[in-house]
Specification:
375 residues; Spore Coat Polysaccharide Biosynthesis Protein SpsA, Chain A; eight-stranded mixed beta sheet; three-stranded antiparallel beta sheet; 10 helices; 17 strands; 29% helix; nucleotidyltransferase; transferase; EC 2.7.7.23; UDP-N-acetylglucosamine diphosphorylase protein
Length: 375
């Protein structure tokens, strides 16, 4: 084991941790070492995504929009779409220890994020059934909800207590993302107690390995799913299972797609889509990793920001692509380092959490399209 991990901390964790059987020590050592060594290294060169390559739904004719809508509804009516919700985080920044989706965001109706999204799925199901000849046949949209060890029980109980917001209980599948140990800045394990290593969720990019390890990719295939709509829980404006977006995705025949919103101003704290090199894939660069000059660069002809396509975590993938990327990202040992205050035997320790992001998958995609939604 690398000295980066701290011999005494490691020995305590192996001998005493009640969860020691879940610690893949060679993998954890590789992640710690590779992630720390990559910190501060120069990244690849980036090019802006050409505006002409981004589709804007509002700029299409009514007939074209209707055609895409109908194509998406048809696929939904055939059971080809599954929805994946990324919901492993707690609402601590909202002043709550509950899962984010339970949070009352102050609407007059008092509806939570979970309820708004469930009702959207219910409505799309009904529209899809009405679009086919046998309108009495309701094909459910299966909703896969990724929790974490910190939110799983509360999320399940919340849905059960609200009778699944009108959806059938068997169309909602809960599964947990993984966790990774938290470490100090020099790579030593942080102990939550004298006998337990402090851990944290492995980021929303933990989705891929979680889908693979829980056999849910096979479950989707068995149900006839071909397309997977993935989104983050904390977007109140999300159009879950958007037929127009799905129709456009199917029309283009690509492996991946993302909805984007034009960046409002240079300092806005959002990641943006860029092209890696002259001919590389589309990827996302976090705002914290962008050079200020790059963030402020203006297109001389249009007057718009050159790097302007904000990632808002609204993605579509083919199931075939998810199967491929689940293995690729599982073998990727470089994780994002997030500096956080971590509960420890010392009360609180400033350390590092290791996270993968769902947008890391785009680097593996042979073809990605961006679909602009104007606010």
């Amino acid at each position: 084991m690398s000295s980066l991990c701290g011999t005494s901390s490691l020995r305590r964790s192996v001998i005493f941790s009640s969860r020691r059987s879940s610690l893949d020590l060679p993998r954890i050592d590789r992640i710690i070492k590779c992630s720390l060594e990559s910190k501060g290294l120069p990244g690849p060169s980036y090019e802006p995504v050409p505006e002409a390559s981004v589709s804007t739904v509002e700029d299409r004719t009514p007939d074209e929009r209707h055609r895409l809508w109908k194509k998406g509804l048809k696929a939904i009516s055939q059971g080809k779409l599954a929805v994946v919700l990324l919901s492993g985080g707690q609402g601590t920044r909202l002043g709550s220890s509950d899962p984010k989706g339970c949070f009352n965001i102050g609407l007059p109706s008092g509806k939570s994020l979970f309820q708004l999204q469930a009702e959207r799925i219910l409505r799309i199901q009904r529209l899809a059934s009405q679009s086919i000849e046998d309108s009495a046949r309701l094909v459910p949209i299966h909703w896969y909800i990724m929790t974490s060890p910190f939110t799983d029980e509360a999320t399940r109980k919340y849905f059960e207590s609200h009778k699944y917001f009108g959806l059938e209980s068997n169309q909602i599948i809960f599964f947990q993302q993984g966790t990774l140990p938290c470490v100090s800045k020099d790579g030593k394990f942080i102990m939550e107690t004298p006998y337990k290593v402090a851990t944290a969720p492995d980021g929303n990019g933990g989705l891929f390995s979680a889908l693979k390890s829980s056999k849910l990719l096979e479950d989707m295939a068995m149900r006839g799913v071909e397309y997977v709509d993935c989104y983050g829980v904390d977007n109140v404006l999300v159009r879950v299972a958007d037929p127009a977006f799905l129709g456009y995705f199917i029309d283009k025949g690509v492996a991946t797609a993302a909805k984007v919103v034009r960046k409002a101003y240079p300092q806005e704290k959002v990641g943006v889509f860029v092209q890696r090199g002259k001919v590389g894939p589309l990827i996302v660069v976090e705002y914290s990793e962008m050079d200020p000059a790059m963030s402020s660069e203006i297109h001389q002809t249009t007057g718009n920001l050159r790097y302007c396509w904000s990632n808002v975590c609204l993605h579509l993938f083919t199931l075939d692509f998810l199967k491929q990327v689940a293995t690729g990202l599982e073998n990727d040992s470089i994780y994002h380092l997030a500096e956080k205050k971590i509960p420890s035997i010392h009360g609180s320790t400033v350390g590092l959490k290791f996270e993968q992001f769902i947008f890391h998958a785009f680097a593996y995609s042979p073809s990605t399209i961006l679909f602009e939604k104007k606010i």
